[in-house]
Write a structure and sequence with these properties.
By secondary structure, the protein is mainly α. It is 68% helix and 0% strand. It contains nine helices and no strands. Helix 2 packs antiparallel against helix 3 and helix 3 packs across helix 7. The radius of gyration is 20 Å and the shape is elongated. Keywords: Cell membrane, Hydrolase, Membrane, Transmembrane, Transmembrane helix.
Length: 234
């Protein structure tokens, strides 16, 4: 698999040079911004989206808020599991970072010595984005756009091939979706128990709230049928 990176004539490498070439033409301050966004900013943004979605769900006080909160808990857990799954994949493929095999790249982050395929960053942000989409469609769509942009930035930074990013997207999506039924079966009863607690029940549903609108949720039973019809009509 490491041989995939050796030829400078394959589309993967050509696209790498095309995207990374944008960094050479950009001002230095812009590259520094992209470096921060690619390393930390987008991941932080998706985490904040998860927190915002949680706050919205608990504030509305939907009668099945526990299902949506359980799905939100699953989003970061899915990202963690996907990264663990990626450990043996990286060790098996052993694909070097692109700047080790190709000259003339504008590398915005130095010191990357681990293997390139699959991208951990792409895996994490996509797993969280898909997990968030499972919990709430509208928040999830925003997260998915951010995740795709994050993958683009990893190539822009010169630290990953495009196929590293695509592989990360596929891995994150697979883990978040395929394990979601098991995760929900395990997490939902726990969250319901938390909801019934007089001390920490506010983590699931705001006190004094009745069954809320729940618009945007896609977990089965997480919103009323009327809200579901409005969302589909939109």
């Amino acid at each position: 698999m490491a041989g995939l990176a050796e030829s400078g004539s394959n589309p993967d490498v050509d696209l790498l040079y095309d995207i990374n070439g944008l960094a050479k033409d950009a001002p230095g301050w812009f590259d520094r911004v992209m470096e921060f966004v690619g390393e930390y900013g987008l991941l932080l943004a998706i985490v904040l989206l998860v927190v915002w979605c949680w706050w919205t769900v608990r504030r509305r006080g939907d009668e099945d808020a526990a299902s949506s909160v359980a799905a939100l808990v699953w989003a970061p857990l899915a990202a963690g599991i996907a990264v663990l799954v990626n450990v043996p994949i990286r060790g098996f493929v052993e694909r070097p970072r692109p700047f080790l095999d190709h000259q003339g790249l504008e590398v915005l982050v130095s010191g990357k010595t681990d293997y390139s395929f699959v991208s951990d960053h792409a895996t994490i942000v996509m797993a969280m984005a898909v997990g968030l989409f499972v919990a709430h469609r509208k928040f999830g769509l925003v997260a998915l756009v951010l995740a795709v942009f994050g993958g683009f930035i990893r190539v822009y930074m010169g630290v990953h091939y495009p196929t590293d990013v695509v592989g990360g997207f596929a891995l994150g999506t697979a883990v978040a979706l395929l394990l979601s039924p098991v995760a929900m079966a395990l997490l939902t009863p726990v969250v319901r128990a938390v909801e019934r607690s007089p001390r920490v029940g506010w983590l699931v549903r705001g006190r004094g709230r009745g069954a809320g609108d729940g618009e945007g949720a896609v977990i089965p039973g997480a919103r009323r049928e009327q809200a579901s019809e409005r969302d589909l009509a939109a």
